[in-house]
Amino acid sequence: MESVIIADNLIKIYHSSTNNVKALDKVSLEISSGEFLMITGRNGSGKSTLLHQLALLDEYDSGEIIINNQKTSHLSERKRMDLRLRGLGYIFQEYALIGELSALENVMLPAMMLESSKEAKAKAFEILEKVDLREKCFRLPSELSGGEQQRVAIARSLINSPKIIFADEPTANLDSTSSKKVLEIFKSLNKKDDITIVMVTHEPEELAYASRHIQLADGRIV
């Protein structure tokens, strides 16, 4: 299958006044179209750092990341933002919803950067139904459970029809029932909609949902 993400000799160093920490140490991997890849490792192993580099949310120090055959190391921030907006979706552990906006408005936001408010609203209604939240679309995040907030975040990640979704420990703050529901949504998106999913997890039992997993230790794949 075609590789949609290639990382080649990726190095990321965090600098401070006292020392430098090599969070990623010459990491290389390929992720194929339609994969459900999970990244595991202890705290400090570099798994979230790797996810953030692959998702173009942070800048790496050296190496190369290629997404859909496009090299990203020399892209301007504007072009990186355009690539993120049009081709990539993001789901975070803390949901990252705007508290003053309804579920519907949170989901609409990324689409409104590309199309009209009317078009964005129609798409948001459709996607909220897909994650079983159509009837709660006018509620604020504070009026939703943790699992429901995460499903709003999933809906928001889908609004611009990405072919790759990055999820950073999306079940960490959820109970077992909500976690299973979120993972079943991911599985459906992966199998039925052919969306490539790259997810960081701490939970060994979640690996059953993945088509492949890698483990990191000290910034390297082991």
How many DSSP E strands?
A: 10
Q: Which CATH architecture?
A: 3-Layer(aba) Sandwich
CATH superfamily: P-loop containing nucleotide triphosphate hydrolases
Distance between the termini: 23 Å
The H/E string reads: EEEHEEHEHHHEHEEE
Mean pLDDT level:
93
Q: So what's the overall shape?
A: globular
Name the features.
222 residues, Rossmann fold, four-stranded antiparallel beta sheet, 6 helices, 28% strand
Task: Provide structural commentary.
The protein is of the alpha/beta class and 222 residues long. The protein has a single domain, classed as Rossmann fold, CATH 3.40.50.300. The chain is 31% helix and 28% strand. It contains six helices and ten strands. The protein has helices spanning 47-54, 77-87, 103-108, 117-130, 146-158, 176-192; strands at residues 3-15, 20-32, 36-41, 62-67, 70-71, 88-92, 164-168, 196-200, 212-217, 220-221. The strands form two sheets. The chain has a six-stranded mixed beta sheet, sandwiched between helices. A four-stranded antiparallel beta sheet has the order 2-1-4-5, with helices on one face. The longest helix has 17 residues, at 176-192. The radius of gyration is 17 Å and the shape is globular. The two termini are 23 Å apart. The mean pLDDT is 93.
